[in-house]
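Posting for a labmate who doesn't have an account.
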Amino acid sequence: MEKSNIKSSAFGLAKGAELLSDDYFDIGHFANTTVAVLCDGVGSAKEGRTASKEVVNYLLKSFELKPNMWDIPQALEQFINSINTILYSRSEMEYGSPQYLTTLTIVVIEGNRLYGANVGDSRVYLLRDNKLHQLSTDHTLDDEENSHVLIKAVGLSKEIEPYFFENNLRKDDYILLCSDGVYNEVDEKELIEHIPLFAKGIVKYINKKSFENLRDDTSAIVLKINEEDEVEKQVSKNLTIPEELNENDNIDGYVLKKSLIQNRRTWLAEKDGEKVVIKFPPLSVLDSKEELNLFVREAWNAKRLNPKHMPKAYIPEDRTYRYYILEYIEGENLEEYISKNNIDISEATQVLQVLLENSQYLINYNLAHGDIKPENIIRTKEGKFYIVDYGSIVDIFSITNRAGTPSYLSPERFQSAPISEQSEIFAIGVTIYRILTKQFPYGEIEPFQTPTFAKPPKPPKELNHNIPEWFNNLILRMVHKDTSIRYRHFSEVDYDLKHPDKVQPILNRDAPLLERDPLKFYKIGFWIMAILNILQLVI
């Protein structure tokens, strides 16, 4: 999933008539971070090609699972040391000498900051304002005759000392990672000319220049910064964070009227006679940059998104405090509403349609709501439904431990699976089950509890006789614990919702055969009786 402010490309060709290259490279986009890694397996080593692939995959997986408390420099050092130890130890066990050897270049972009490291002679360049800067350093012998001889490589020795570098990034910067098969074949002027053509343009140019007979494996990654990171820009603003908020406080002309949440960080406010919701960051941002980044990202998502079924949001340009503004929607949440009222089937299908449309809208931005439940759905007096809580929105497929509310989490989420369309469909299904039956399909689940989901849910039509058979089956498929039975995509649920006659019944695999397939049960019974009768006659 490419980040919207970064354009990325990667391409490589093997030397001469070779089918496989010793180079390996890949790019990963994880939440707020982009990671690019390129390795050139040492040709004289028996396992150079394997080493290059393993280093790239290991580093990308490590950054995907990086603990939040680790900063990027710490993570770079730790992960490179770990994979070096792994390769060195394997060489010693299998060969008695270093054979899993590779160069390494890696860059990590977080916000507007570039972090990088290299080992060996693969390089990292920054192209800015038509000037080329080499950010990495070559770990080779100094004399010109032996300048190709490496003095450092991943897996070469028990301890490793990478070269680390950092830089601030600007709009229209290009970052190039490349093997020596690139920079040995072109001069600086040619690189400056071809980097804007991205990785494929560079490698194809070199291949053409060598008459399609490359002397060395040739690989490149190019990243272009299309825009400065909006979240980083907002974080850097010097804005006051009020520690205490009270009724009638004046915040940039917004008069606080009523606290809407127990922590007193979200308020109903008025300005020029208009009611709005004003949301301030939690006090934890005062001690944690990570918490501040999360709040700023929440505000940015609220501002840039314009979903039909969520409150409109904006960030005043002239604000002196850190907050953002939300459209005020008067009504009550569905959990409160169903405590005093019953939801009819027509309203339930309307809620389902709203949730599906909103979820599909968010997934177009690679996002998911992350905390779908009746408390986050507002019903207006006119009978319209809106979804609230921008703070829960997360990147789709992100691994966020139990983000959301336990009773609405799918079974796979309790096993650390990433948020997905299927996990969001489960939460939507539990929400519809809840508002129609006032119960949970798998019972209420407490925080930090790990449920087994062993007992299948009671069909909702048994708890609410107004639910038609087709809608009963649709809900059961949404909340099914087995992902092979549960709907995979929002579009599938939407299709069944609009075509009730197409909804297939749900067969509980754990139920008795008589309940699952009466015809099959009686056929088997018939043949058993027939065989028994024949045996009696023979005996």
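Reply:
Got it, the structure tokens are right above this. The chain has a mean pLDDT of 90.
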